[in-house]
Amino acid sequence: MNFHQNICGIGKAVDDKDPINPTNLPRGYGGTGILWRKDLDNFINPLDIGNDRICCVELLGSSKLLLVSVYLPCKGTPSDSLEFYNCIDQLHEIVQSYSDSHSIIIGGDFNENILSKIDTRRNKYLVDFLNENSLYTEENGITFVNCSGKGTSTIDFLLFKQDFKENVISMETMDNVATNVSDHFPVKARSEIYHQC
Q1: CA neighbours closer than 13 Å in the CB half-sphere of residue 66
Q2: Closest to 67 in 3D by CA, of 37, 90, 35, 89
């Protein structure tokens, strides 16, 4: 992918093959992506794991870091729920495969509020995945505003292992980015990683 002369990246379009209902056209298509500065390209290894809704890269060096971008299915049809569970199962497999050798950060649109006390099957499945894998996140306010501007929710998160928490300096929802044309606000984290390449 070509983004900018100083940027490299990978990405996957999720729903570009599905017809979009005319009422949803303003939102465009969704997908996953991970970008990095070109001068780091020799230290980044894109991985061919996951599915159309999960993309991964590893940062190589003395301590390895796995970055995972996700876009989980919305609520809707029973097939959407099945795809949601399948994505969580794939995330579980990825985390289990890389936990012993990598620090892991997972970020994206989970289409569920992980921190809410909502007792739905989807939410429980996702929260169970977090608990089983000792994944942690923080509440950072509203991350999604629907097209009418009336419906809001917190569905975008950054997750990391409990033992990585001490490396995270700050997390924030960036709800004032003038150039953001998405109905989602970016979530940003700053962390310190001591890395020898």
Answers
A1: 25
A2: 35
Query: At a CB cut-off of 8 Å and minimum separation 6, what does 179 contact?
Result: none
pTM, full prediction: 0.85
What is the C-alpha to C-alpha distance for residues 63 and 197, in angstroms, rounded to an integer?
9
Are the C-beta atoms of residues 50 and 68 closer than 8 Å to each other?
Answer: yes
Pairing of strands 156-161, 135-136: antiparallel
- Go through the domains of the chain in sequence order and give each one's CATH number: 7-191 (3.60.10.10)
pLDDT number for residue 24: 53
Segment 174-194, tens digit of pLDDT = 788 888 777 777 787 777 766
| CA–CA gap between residue 46 and residue 40 (Å, rounded) | 12
Length of the chain: 197
* Cα distances (angstroms) measured from residue 43 to each of 39, 40, 59, 62: 9, 5, 6, 11
